[in-house]
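Just curious: can you write whichever protein you like plus the matching structure tokens?

***
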Amino acid sequence: MASEVRIRILSKGAQALLKDPGIQEDIGNRVDRVAAAAGEGFEADVQVGKRRTVGMVKTMTTEAAIKNAENRTLLVALNSGA
């Protein structure tokens, strides 16, 4: 039987680490590599949220969205961000 496990980080130090500029840079580098591997029409973005830094790669053109839908381009490119 599976159960859901949730972890809450209450330490202000741990929360600060998740938004640290070094972490932002690392996540930025990773999403840049994924976007580059995905090809033209994909853009990397890093945002600092309320609790942590978030990196994402978005389709910026209709052609990129179609390419991603047909070929799972972003999923394939994920290994480039490691």
Strands lie at 42-48, 53-59. Helices lie at 12-18, 21-38, 62-71, 73-77.
